[in-house]
Amino acid sequence: MEIRSLKNSVVMSMGPGQQVETLKRILVEKQLLKQFLQTYPDLIVESYENGRKVKDKKIKLFKTLQFFTLAVTNRLSYSSFLKSRDLLQVIKDRVVANHIEPSKVYIAWSFIGLESIKRAKKLGTKVILECQTTHIDQWIEIIKEEKKIMGIENCYSDFSEFLVRRVREEYEMADLVKVLSSYSKESFVKQGLDPKKVRVIPFGIEKHFAIPDKVDKEKQIEKTVILYVGRVEILKGIQYLLKSFSQIKGKDIELHLVGQVLPEAKVFLKNYQEDKRIKIFGGVSKEKLKEFYKNADIFVFPSLNDAFGLVVLEAMSFKLPIITTEHSCSKDVISDWEEGFVVPIRDSSAIKEKLELLIENKNLRQEMGERARQKVVTNFSIERYENETLSLLEELDEDLK
Length: 401
Fold this sequence. Notes:
Elements: E1 10-14, H1 20-29, E2 33-38, E3 44-49, E4 52-58, H2 60-73, H3 78-99, E5 105-109, H4 114-122, E6 126-130, H5 136-150, H6 161-173, E7 176-179, H7 182-190, E8 198-200, H8 207-210, E9 224-229, H9 238-246, E10 253-258, H10 266-269, E11 278-282, H11 286-294, E12 298-301, H12 310-317, E13 322-325, H13 330-333, E14 340-343, H14 348-360, H15 362-379, H16 382-400
Parallel strand pairs: 1-2, 1-5, 5-6, 6-7, 7-8, 9-10, 9-12, 10-11, 12-13, 13-14
Antiparallel strand pairs: 2-3, 3-4
Helix pairs in contact: 2-3, 3-4, 4-6, 9-14, 12-15
């Protein structure tokens, strides 16, 4: 698909997130990208012409400011760290706003987009807000509930009120809000945003990572392995997975937790130190992650509030049956009893029931795993993601004519 009228006419600012490079590559290959503003880990401004980078500039002062702010607040309370993190988001936003060039379309990154959106609108630019979370108000509601349940004051997923107000304003000012799942869209509609303004474009899987030509399921581990991949924090619902797993008896099963362990996780991890079947591996490289998928038998993603969950697609492409919650990509990806199971959030009993069923029934695991892989290959390729993204840009281009 070509959109000639948008050639060298799209500006994009992006923070940390999944598939940032994929979106950037699409715009470069189609010769649409005019300017790219990277905000993580460094703040870099790149200029493009006809699909070639012609200039880049690193904003050195920002990295110094970021290092100093986080170094100081890391010595203070966790809540001070969170507030400084949010302040840095605002600083990034203002720096980006000062550097964006006139264009036909501006793709802004939620949480660091308000000032640049205001600047773009003054220039007469159409704005797509790239949103990799659910609506901020739903996010806060679930976090408040869980902190009360867990008896903790602060967690990684907290946000300061001043940042929350800014994010709400981003939603209102953008011409379109691009989200990752039906669940995410529902959270925006629930908070009063026009459904026509919210567009769902789910992630796709890069072939070189998680759709190998042939998936070899010969394992190096004899036991039945249950796998979780992602940050170990309360918002991901790990506490409910641990509770359900600990109630299943037997030495021939293991639970592998792969991902960064956040400080708040100590509240619930300490309760399971005696269960040697639970293995915590921390963050790993993409190549190492493949080995975890290959050696797993069941994948569980018990998130309380996730805009998508790319790891679900990755696990499916390695022929793993899935147990996930309603608050994830499940409505778009999982058909209950076909590729796995969808359970309510915070329901450790439901997770336990589905785990026991899959542990005891190898044939069912294999059948679901085969269907899971086929669905990813058929419906969630990176080409599909590319085509839907370009269609959205083409639609905006029609509005500009």
